[in-house]
Structures are given as structure tokens and as C-alpha cells.
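We both want to read C-alpha cells more fluently, so let's practise on a single case. Would you supply a protein for us yourself, any chain you care to pick? Would you write everything just below, so we can both look at the same thing?
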Amino acid sequence: MACCSNDTCTDTQRLDSPGWRRTLWIALAVNAGFFFIEIAAGAAAGSTSLQADALDFLGDAANYAVSLGVAGMALVWRARAALVKGATLLALALWVLGSVIWHAWAGTLPEADVMGIVGVAALVANASIALMLFRYRGGDANMRSVWICSRNDAIGNLAVLAAAAGVFGTGTGWPDLIVAAIIGLLGLTGGVQIVRQALGELRESAQGSLAAAE
């Protein structure tokens, strides 16, 4: 395949490029690893925001795997993959918001020190991934969904650190619950953006097919 710059590449060429694939593999490995770290730490510390962030890592790892599977395929397949990813993000966000309600009723008090240590490590990992993916933020729905997920993760990590400080300062679990709710709302808005763009690209692809058939 002929080489091209980021400004002259088509979306298909960029999605099938070695650099894009390498970035996705790194992101996949980091997100899968941090899912296990945060889900265990969240359960041990009783932190809803850490568990919410862990689920976000799991969703992103699955999203990166799907993106690797459709890299280089036609727009319609990439849009379908993005649609699945957007729906998954919406489902995870709803689970997080439901978990917030349950922990608010149970009155859980998380351990701030564990939240802070894990939150810093996750922030470094996600910020690094977001920087690697920044150049691909303007692509199709599938490519853009990867950027949105990484951006949301970095914001979520900052929020977890703020929650840890809030729990430590107030001695209550409300800062943790508020941050978990924010992460859930970020997931909802990100999922809606991805689904809308994917549906638009599917319509565009269908119109192109009809025009070609006429």
C-alpha cells in the first residue's frame, strides 16, 4: 500500500496503517490490565468510582479489539462496529448509574488512600494513550469512538482523584458517588455521540449503494 501523510490519507488507509494498529494494541493491553487492577482495588476499597472506571477500562479494551478487527474494512463495517461500541458504552454507563444508586442506599464509605494510588496510576496510563490517539480524533465514527473513549477515561481518572480527596476530607462516601455518577454521564454522552455518527455513516453508505445501483 502506498504511503501517505495524515492529511492525505483516506480513513481506510489510516485505519489499516501499522501505526494505527500498533497504537490500538498498546491501548488494548493497557486497558485490559487496568480493568483487573481497578476492579480488584475498587472492591477492596469499597469505591464505586474505581469500579465504574474499571468497567470503562473493560469497555474500552473490547472497543479496541473490535477496532482492530475492522481496520481497513469498508465504511459500512466500520460504522456497524462503532454502533456496537456506542451501544456498549451506553449499557455500561447505565450500569454505573444504577450502582451509584445502590451504594448511596447502602451508605458505603470507601478507602481514600487506595483510590488515590490507583487513580494516579490509571491517569498516567490513560493520558499516555490519549496522547497517542490524539492524531486520529478526526476520523470516521469507529476511529473517533476510540478517541472519545480515551478522552473520557483520562477525565474520569482526574475525577477519581478528586473523589479520593473528597472522601478523605469529608469522611463520607458522597464524593465517590458523585464522581461515579459523572463517569456514568460521560459514558452516556459519549455513547450518544458515537451512535449518532455511526447511524449517519450507515445512512450515507446506504445512499451511496442506492446511487451506484441506479
User: Anything to note?
Assistant: The chain has one domain: 11-213. Residues 1-13 have pLDDT under 50 and may be disordered.
